[in-house]
Amino acid sequence: MDILTLVYIINFILLLIASYTDIKTREIPHTIVIFMLFINLLAGYYLFGLDAIISFFATLILCLILGIGMGGGDVKIFTALAPIFAYGDKIFYIPKPILLLIGISAGLVALYPLINILRKYWRGIIPSVLGLCVFYSTLSYLFYRYKIPYASLILWIYVIISIFISRKIPWYRELINKLSYLAPVYLLAIYLLDRDYFIRNNLLLSFVVYVLELTLISLVIYALTGTEVSVKKPISQLKEGDILRDIVYIKDRVGKVENAGLWKRFKIMLELEMGKKGDYDKIIMTDGDGLREEDLKLLQNLHKEGKMPVDELTLITTYPFVPFVLIGYVIVLILHYYFKVI
Questions:
Q1: What CATH code is carried by the domain that includes residue 50?
Q2: Distinct helix (H) and strand (E) counts, the chain
Q3: Helix, strand, or coil here: 164?
Q4: Using the 8-state DSSP alphabet, how is residue 232 labeled?
Q5: What percent of the chain has pLDDT over 70?
Q6: Of the candidates 298, 326, 338, which has an alpha carbon nearest to the alpha carbon of residue 101?
Q7: 342 within some domain
Q8: Residue 325 has pLDDT above 70, yes or no
Q9: Where does the pLDDT of residue 69 fall: very low under 50, low under 70, confident under 90, or very high at 90 and above?
Q10: Who wins on pLDDT, 256 or 342?
Q11: Is the Cβ–Cβ distance between 284 and 248 less than 8 Å?
């Protein structure tokens, strides 16, 4: 067994331990990251010379940027791994395997909440998606028959707007949901009326693809409009690092709480960056790093003084990050050892 393979195995074990602690405590022991960094710098310098050191510092700069709003404690693992991936091509001195690892990890982290939203709201999402697919496919056929230009663009814009509308207007949602029962009728009707169109466009497969596409779009829209998986937590039990879904406005040491979706939080964040607080003395909202100690103490003090309108605040459910890094790490090693592509 060569040195590099041995180092990869050691890092796998360390990531496994870090994943366990991240799941249990939402914390990554500094000793693990320091030990990982120490081993990887020594092995990287021995195997790749100055390339390992340059890769380390280049990845460190990238991770400092990623750490703003993402939770800087997690992304330091990428920096620790960089020296042992300094063997191949690089982009701005950052090893391509590290960039791939970051991409895989971030993609899995983004996908996991969407899966949870689907599990929680599938009874509302699936009928709506099937109904929209029937509507979209029917109009697509009619537009095809009458050669209407830009049909696909017009229909996709309408479908996306419909998803937003169906979340706000109950009768419209019910109408779209009822269309879902016509899915087999639509497919059978097109097959009987225009078999050439059905076969040429592989309509059955196309319909399945539409369902998958619209399901993904619906999940993203659900997330953008504030349908995160969230929990209530007593103010007295809040801790540093908790990520609030609520926005807390404070004026004259009296709190006001607003349950806000992603767009609202983004708008307030931009206003705060420009120094706009309106009539309020302070606005508390959290980014990826969560609640700061000073804000936590302020909230708990106001609650003790009876100046908060609620006893609980809504938190966005967070997920351990290191297990996704571990999965990405294994994928990168498989691509390296078995497929020889990186």
A1: 1.20.120.1220
A2: 13, 7
A3: helix
A4: E
A5: 94
A6: 326
A7: no
A8: yes
A9: very low
A10: 256
A11: yes
To the nearest whole number, what is the mean pLDDT of the chain? 87
Using the CB atoms, write b or e for 24-40: b if 16+ within 10 Å.
Answer: eebebeeebbeebbebb
Q: What would the two tokens of residue 96 be?
A: 């391509």
115: amino acid identity, one letter: I
Q: How far is the CA of 83 from the CAs of 54, 134, 328, in angstroms?
A: 8, 53, 17
Overall domain count for the chain: 3
**Spatial separation of the C-alpha atoms in residues 11 and 8, rounded to whole Å:** 5
Phi–psi pair at 41, nearest 5 degrees: -65, -45
Q: What is the pLDDT of residue 289?
A: 65
The label of the residue with tokens 């360390």 reads 14
Asked if 24 and 67 touch (Cβ cutoff 8 Å), the reply is: no
Q: Of 90, 53, 327, which Cα lies nearest the Cα of 98?
A: 90
One-letter amino acid at 131 equals: G
Give the DSSP letter of residue 246: E
What is the tens place of the pLDDT at every residue in 107-135? Answer: 888 888 888 888 888 988 999 999 999 99
Q: What DSSP assignment string belongs to 46-80?
A: HHHTHHHHHHHHHHHHHHHHHTTTTTHHHHHHHHH
End-to-end CA distance of the chain: give it in Å, rounded. 20
Q: Nearest-CA neighbor of 91 among 122, 124, 62? A: 62
Are 107 and 327 spatial neighbours (Cβ–Cβ below 8 Å)?
no
Question: What digits encode the pLDDT tens for the residues 285-315?
Answer: 886 667 888 999 999 999 999 999 999 998 8
Of 224, 259, 289, the last residue of a domain is 224
Residues 164, 133 share a domain: yes
Domain that holds residue 12: 3-108+321-337
